[in-house]
Prior knowledge:
The chain has helices at residues 10-30, 34-46, 51-69, 76-97, 102-124, 132-146, 156-162, 167-191, 197-221, 231-250. The chain is an all-alpha fold. Helix 3 packs antiparallel against helix 8 (167-191), helix 5 packs antiparallel against helix 10 and helix 7 (156-162) packs antiparallel against helix 8.
Amino acid sequence: MEPSLxxxxxxxxxxxxxxxxxxxxxxxxxxxxxGMIVTLFITPIIxxxxxxxxxxxxxxxxxxSRVWVYRDGLQxxxxxxxxxxxxxxxxxxxxxxxxxxxxxxxxxxxxxxxxSVPVRRWIEGQKLRPSTTQVVTVSGVFGFLSSVIVxxxxxxxxxxxxxxxxxxxxxxxxxxxAVLVNVAKVILFGSLxxxxxxxxxxxxxxxxxxxxxxxxxxxxxxxxxxxxxxVFIEILIVGGGASLIWxxxxx
Length: 251
């Protein structure tokens, strides 16, 4: 039986609210990591196969609130070409995702979460100045992977930074790209019967819990230059990814 708000016990609901709030703060400050944190929490509850469709709804709401908070910095000149490539590739990724076995998805999620820590550190150290060809390539890869794994957004942030975006402009533009891609994913997963009405309602409820976190993160951004990807969060991501792989292999 699929989980719904009626079948989840109150302590789990309270924990979910806290996780979504904290993850939204992380995403609002850095533009990355929110989906990964929520994934660690919801995978044991809803199963690995339902994660990407549910995260798509949740991140649609989360990123829409981020765009609104940083709307003054939004730059559509970068949104249109990146989303224009990413959206159709997300459709291809969705078709691949629904054909994957649940255990394979869980192992893949775990590997991505673990790899995200060193990959993010490496990307931060690069001084990227993407050409048009590179923008198209990265956008296509991002779109495809966003329908298959969690954390594909880490490809977009450094590319936007290489295009000269920073601060609210970076966060708003990245958020708008994510909104368009996730709208397409939600429609696709719904049409492919990979996102039931119960899971949709659950995702909407969790997504609404991220809105206060987005505002809290915006308050921090406007008053501090501190990056939120701390060692504690990296340990949590790596540990959670390892546990997903372990349970998929030995469950």
